[in-house]
Amino acid sequence: MIRKIAILGSTGSIGVNALDVISRFTGGKFEVVALSADTNIKLLSQQSRRFRPKVVSVSDPELVNSLEKQVPRSTKVLSGTDGLNAIVSRKDVDTVVFAISGSACLMPLVTAIKNRKRIALANKESIVSAGEIVMRLARKYGVNIIPIDSEHSAIFQCLEGRMEALRKVYLTGSGGPLLNLPAKKFNGLSQKFILKHPRWRMGKKISIDSATMMNKGLEIIEAKWLFDLDQSAIEVLIHPEAIIHSMVELVDGSVFAQLGVPDMRLPIQYAITYPSRFKGIVKRLDFSENPELTFRRPDMDKFPCLGLARKALKAGGADPAVLNAADEEAVKCYLEGRIKFSSIPCVIEKVLGRYKRSYKEEVTINDILDAERWAKEEARRLCYH
After folding, report:
1. For 246, left (φ over 0), alpha (ψ -120 to 50), or beta?
2. Is the C or the N end of the chain the one with fewer CB within 10 Å?
3. How many helices (H) and strands (E) are present in the chain, helices listed first?
4. Model pTM?
5. Dihedral of CA 116/121/125/130: which sign?
């Protein structure tokens, strides 16, 4: 059976790796039906000429004319949210890889679920902001959401057939580039240093989130919704070697871990081939090259974003959406040189503190979107003054 795939965000790190995985398999296992990108039409056009998708989409409508001149004549060019919704609604697409970063993923994800597509999800923000809504819809429409994040992919794999016996999950993280530095030195570091992750090559936003450990905070919220867990059952462990990607502990004390080299193509391949397993394309794990696997608990004072994420999750409602949106804007302002690195958690905390909650029994998508817009505006105002 041929998997007919759409990749939203094909020019980013996850999208590029997904296409690399697909290209390694011959014999008609995959067909790339659709691709989308933000503004990188040069790379999108190159991908289109290689994989010959039926349709591509770009975020800015003003780029359509230029893109049409660069893609094959048989490829239709769309734009904006309407373009993404059209892609995930196509009858000739059965699997959608969500590699878009940020909250722009939410509405296309909802549309894909309602169209009963298999979801390979690399976007944290949609689950962080609207996890309860998204997972409720997935259950209603009988849709599988297979996580691509290495940590959640590991938990997903370890939990198969064991959910009823689960006691706790351990989200592992390398600790990022600042793990062994005192907080007082953070503001003296260059962006280049902070963006250089010791184990993974990632985009700028997720690299900064890794440095603040907000990435791990968002993963706590994501794990809560993906696996229907109480927050108390989710623990974070620093694991600098990044060989164990996460673990689950069962009620009898048994612990299952998923191990592998730090290469995002491994969880991507698993997500797009699930429930099958194809022959691996990444380097095999050599235990003799990794004689030590070490762990430690995170320093909550040094990395306050972890505590802010737990606080937002406990508050519920639209608070996680506010947290996520404030983080997006604060990181953007840091990268633009408007605030210091240490100001990122300060901005997020202030935005959360100023958010006026509407205590509804059930938060809607519109509530989430309104909260995100407010949080971004408030964070921007704090960063610019």
Report:
1. left
2. C
3. 15, 11
4. 0.93
5. positive
With b meaning 16 or more CB within 10 Å and e meaning fewer, what string describes 162-198?
A: eeeebebbbbbbbbbbbbeeeeeebeeeeeeebbebb
d(CA 49, CA 174): 37
Task: Report the pLDDT averaged over residues 180-191.
Answer: 93
- Asked whether 246 and 158 are in contact (CB, 8 A), the reply is yes
CATH 1.10.10.10 for domain 183-212+301-385, yes or no, is: no
Q: What are phi and psi of 60, to 5 degrees?
A: -95, 120
Determine the 3-state secondary structure of 48 from DSSP.
helix
Sort strands 244-250 and 166-173 into parallel, antiparallel or unpaired: antiparallel
pLDDT of residue 360: 67
Helix, strand and coil in the chain, % to nearest 5: 50, 15, 35
Euclidean distance between CA atoms 186 and 346, whole angstroms = 14
Confidence band of 359 (pLDDT split at 50, 70, 90)? low
User: How far apart (Å, rounded) are the C-alpha atoms in residues 309 and 184?
Assistant: 22
Give me the pLDDT at residue 108, please.
95
What's residue 186's pLDDT? 93
Q: Where are the domains of the chain?
A: 3-143, 183-212+301-385
Sheet holding 244-250, edge to edge: 234-238, 166-173, 244-250, 255-259
Using CA atoms, how far apart are residues 48 and 42, in angstroms rounded to an integer?
10
What gap in Å lies between CA 143 and CA 123, rounded to an integer? 16
CB-based contacts of 382, cutoff 8 Å, min separation 6: 347, 350, 351
CA 269 centroid distance within chain: 16
Q: Exposed/middle/buried for 370, CB within 10 Å: 0-12, 13-18, 19+?
A: middle
Alpha helices in the chain (DSSP H): 13-23, 41-51, 64-68, 80-88, 106-114, 124-141, 150-159, 191-195, 204-212, 214-226, 265-273, 305-315, 319-335, 343-354, 365-384
Residues in the chain: 385
Mean pLDDT of 108-121: 97
Contact between 194 and 211 (Cβ < 8 Å): yes
Q: Which two tokens stand for residue 84?
A: 């993404």
Contact 56, 78 (CB under 8 A): yes
